[in-house]
Amino acid sequence: MNERLWEILVDSFPKLLLYGAKVTIPLTAMSFALALVIAVIVAMIQYADVKVLRQLCRFYIWIVRGTPLLVQLYLVFYGLPQIGIKLNAYPTAVLVFGLNEGAYMAESMRGALEAVPKGQLEAGYCVRMNYLQIMQHIVLPQAFRIAFPALSNSLISMTKGTSLAATITVTEMFREAQVINGRVYESLGLYTEVALIYLLFCTFLTFLQRWGEKKLNSYGGIKA
Q1: Distance separating alpha carbons of residues 151 and 147, to the nearest angstrom
Q2: Which of 19, 38, 86, 164 lies 20 to 30 A from 221 at CA?
Q3: CA-CA distance, 111 to 43, in Å (whole number)?
């Protein structure tokens, strides 16, 4: 490694890490929170088998999972202004990432809900709990435990996927690397560096995932 490249990498690392901390991580957190809310609502509607709403949920999942995330970003950020709907880049990224990942997470949550024995619903009714109380206190806590690995994988995937926000002018970590590279023309070194920072973030999340799984497993399995 030549001296010039080393100086560039040493100088750029704290800048990239700062953008990762103040933009990439908050963007991931807000998008994941939105995705989780969407996933729970959509999964509960499908689990309850409300006919019309169930079909709407299936349509939403079909559309989102059948189109590329990049196209969805462009459609909302560049397309909607043509019909008078204009959003800033950052809220657009949060909305699109949340809607996109929410469709995948909804399927994970639906599978987890269906894995909880139906007898527990009946037991809840026997002690005079209503449907929402049964879901809140009995079914959802167990479903979250079942879905935890899949939801954790979605969070890790979303962390990496936030790099696509650079395509709609969000100045996150990858976008900052592009800006720096535009001045110094050291693509290999800079993009390797930003890849290592993403790897660092995802490694930490993987560690948290494994820790969480061990904690959840310590509580024992689901019983009918």
Answers
A1: 6
A2: 38
A3: 8
Residues of the chain above pLDDT 70, percent: 97
Q: Which CATH superfamily is domain 3-217 in?
A: MetI-like (1.10.3720.10)
Confidence of residue 220 (pLDDT cuts 50, 70, 90): low
Res. 223 pLDDT band, cuts 50 70 90: very low
Q: Helices 140-161 and 187-217 meet at what angle, rounded to 10?
A: 170
pTM: 0.90
d(CA 216, CA 224): 18
Burial class (CB in 10 A: 0-12, 13-18, 19+), 29: middle
Measure the CA–CA gap between 121 and 7, rounded to whole angstroms.
Answer: 63
Instruction: Write down the domain spans for the chain.
Output: 3-217
Residues 55, 58, 60, 63, CA torsion sign: negative
Q: Are 93 and 170 spatial neighbours (Cβ–Cβ below 8 Å)?
A: yes
